[in-house]
Each structure stands twice: as structure tokens, then as C-alpha cells.
Amino acid sequence: MSIALITLVCILGGALLGLFLGMLLPEHHLSNDSRDTVKLGAGLVATMAALVLGLLVGSAKSSFDAMDNGITEIGARTIMLDRALADYGPETKDLREMLRGTLSSVMEDIWPEEQITPARLEIVEQSAQMGGIQRAIRGLAPLNDTQRQLQSQALQISGDLARVRWHMFEQRTKSLPTTLLVVLVFWLAMLFASFGLFAPRNATVVTVLSIAALSVAGALFIILEMNSTLDGIIKVSSAPLHKALDLLGK
């Protein structure tokens, strides 16, 4: 939110600077030849800014979809692990309860406002829980080939779960390069300054430029929100994990 507000202020500042310079510059600086040159420069900057914004939108959408798919995969693999443990026998009851508690702690960490568990657990603590589940699975003493097969299946699924969760953690810590954001905001500010340079000084122009600046800042806000897939206003849905939680232990 703060970055979007800074962007909005910079773009509006650029537009107002253009309007102010338009009143101060000598007439020959605002001739038709000057206007054409400024338009060419503004068109080039606008094209570069549009390309960068398009790339950022595509990257943010990819990150959001990857995290959403990861959440769905965690839910599906958790159900598969619970089913394998249930088929193993009643001796895995405590293990299944541990699995349910681990899933609840993951959901509380990502969606704390839903208050699924009493307290939040950090990613390292959650991973320790998953490691405990894997050790408990290895500690099972299968009595027949069916149980040995189920034990091997449970170990594979739990390993996949741990891998997906660490991948999600890495995705969560990704951020857009600061230099790229600074350059993009500079381009946009200069672009709006060129708009204001030759524009009439009236309320309609100021309103249109303000709405355009707000729209661009809003686009950058959406990009930043979608890039932070587990934080902020735009989050991935918790529905897959809720469905998995409802099915565990049954």
C-alpha cells in the first residue's frame, strides 16, 4: 500500500510539475516543433513503461497461480497421507492427529484472521512438526507387505508435502527488485510531466490527470499484492485446506 501511495504522489507531482513549467517556460519552448519532440519522447517512455507493467502483471499472475496450485497440492497430498495412514491401521491414530494439527498451524500462519488454531507457529516450527511426522512414519513396524507398501507411500507423500511447503516459503519471501520499481516510477512521473507541459490549466485536465495517475498507481498496487501471494489484501484461497481439514481423521 505504501509503495502504491508513493507512486501516486510521484506521478501526480510529475503532472503538476508539467503544468507549472508550462506557465513558466518562454513561448518558443512551447512551439509546435517542441510539442512534437516532447510527444515522441513521451511515446517512447510510455511504450517502455507499458512493457514493464505488462511483464510485472504477467510475473505477479504467475506467482499467484503457482502459490494457489501449491495450496491445492498441499490439501490433496495431506488427504492422501491421511488415507494411507488410516489404511495402515489403528496404530497411526496419534500420527493422524499430529498431521491434523500441523495442517491447522499452516492455515493459521497464512490466514491468521480465520483463527483456526489458538496460536501461530513459525515456518521452522511447522517444518519440525512435519519432520516429526516423517520420523514417526519411519518408526512404524509393518507386519505385512501391505503395511510396508503403505509406509513407503506415506513417506513419499510426506516428503512431497515438506518440499511443497518449503517451495511456498521461498515464493513467499520473493519481492520485486527495488531498482526496477524506482525506474518505473521515474518513467511514469516524467511521462505525466510531459502530459501536463502542454495541457490547458483547468479543473477538467487536473481531474483527468489525477484519475489516470490513480489508475496507474492502482495497477502497481495490484501487481505488488499479487506478488505477495500469502500477505496483504489479495491472498490465495484457503478453501482447499479447509476441505482437507474437514476430511482428516474420518
Features:
250 residues; 2 domains; Four Helix Bundle (Hemerythrin (Met), subunit A); 8 helices
Kindly describe this structure.
With 250 residues, the protein is an all-alpha fold. It has 2 domains: 2-61 and 175-227, no CATH class; 67-174 and 236-247, Four Helix Bundle (Hemerythrin (Met), subunit A) (Up-down Bundle). Helix content is 78%, strand content 0%. Helix 1 (2-24) runs parallel beside helix 6 (178-197) and helix 2 packs antiparallel against helix 3. The longest helix is centred in the N-terminal third of the chain and has 57 residues, at 32-88. The protein is rod-shaped and about 95 Å long. Mean pLDDT is 82; it is low at 116-127.
Content of β-strand: under 5%
Low-confidence stretches: 116-127
**Assembly state:** single chain
Helix content: over 70%
Give the class-level CATH name of the largest domain. Answer: Mainly Alpha
**Estimated structural class:** mainly alpha
Report the order of strands and helices: HHHHHHHH
Biggest sheet record: none
The name of the CATH architecture of the largest domain is Up-down Bundle
Number of helices: 8
Q: What is the mean predicted local confidence, pLDDT?
A: 82
Write down the Rg.
27 Å
List the domain count as a whole number: 2
Query: How far is the N terminus from the C terminus?
Result: 42 Å
Number of strands: 0
Overall 3D shape: rod-shaped
CATH T-level fold name of the largest domain: Four Helix Bundle (Hemerythrin (Met), subunit A)
